[in-house]
Design brief:
By secondary structure, this protein is an alpha+beta fold. The chain is 19% helix and 39% strand. The protein has four helices and 13 strands. The strands form two sheets. Strands 5-6-11-7-10-9 form a six-stranded mixed β-barrel. The protein has a three-stranded antiparallel sheet with strand order 3-13-12, with no helix packed on it. Strand 12 and strand 13 form a beta hairpin. The longest helix has 17 residues.
């Protein structure tokens, strides 16, 4: 029983579930904000706020991004670039509705979480309300999303080298192919 409890505590953040209604509300607010911006936003940015650059290409299909991943206790960890200046590693989690960064990373980026809007995070250990901040840019390989809302939450149950969790708010409009032989993640348009 004690081993099971320790295992659940270790998986506390990885097995997080998020209020989909709140995530959808955040996305809707972002879309409305983009429509209200002077000039109607950047014409090169798609509906999801995604810009695609050269991703190295996958054989037989044009990938938006091909990134090498590392394996952390059986989990896929990918490199990301935040606000064009801080590189970190994030757990790729298709079960997470929203991307999460650590408070230390938010501070390093100069993002203030105090007094901001919150979103519900449900973990195996407990339910919490996490503040939401806006990243100017979140980039994985050749995929760039701008003005991207992310939750800020303590990741103490995870490896110290991780800056956060990359969730479906970033990955939702892509096909995800994980090549374990070559340790590559390919992100393709749907």
């Amino acid at each position: 029983l004690h081993r099971l409890i320790r295992r659940q505590r270790q998986m506390c953040i990885r097995d997080s579930y998020y209020s989909l209604a709140e995530v959808e509300d955040l996305i809707q607010q972002k879309v409305q904000g983009d429509e209200e911006a002077p000039g109607g936003g950047n014409a090169s940015v798609g509906e999801s706020g995604t810009q695609s650059e050269e991703g190295g290409g996958a054989p037989e299909e044009e990938a938006k991004a091909v990134v090498r991943f590392t394996n952390l206790r059986g989990q896929v960890v990918v490199p990301v670039l935040l606000n064009g200046r801080i590189s970190t590693s994030m757990l790729l989690d298709t079960g997470a509705g929203i991307t999460v960064i650590s408070p230390a990373l938010a501070r390093a980026l100069g993002l203030r979480a105090e007094g901001s809007r919150t979103v519900a995070l449900k973990t195996l250990a407990r339910d919490i309300r996490a503040p939401v901040v806006i990243l100017e840019a979140l980039k994985v390989g050749g995929i760039l999303k701008q003005d991207h809302p992310v939750a800020v939450s303590e990741l103490s149950m995870m490896d110290d080298t991780l800056g956060g969790i990359l969730g479906m708010d970033f990955l939702g409009d892509m096909q995800i192919h994980i090549d374990t032989t070559h340790r590559e993640v390919r992100l393709l348009p749907r």
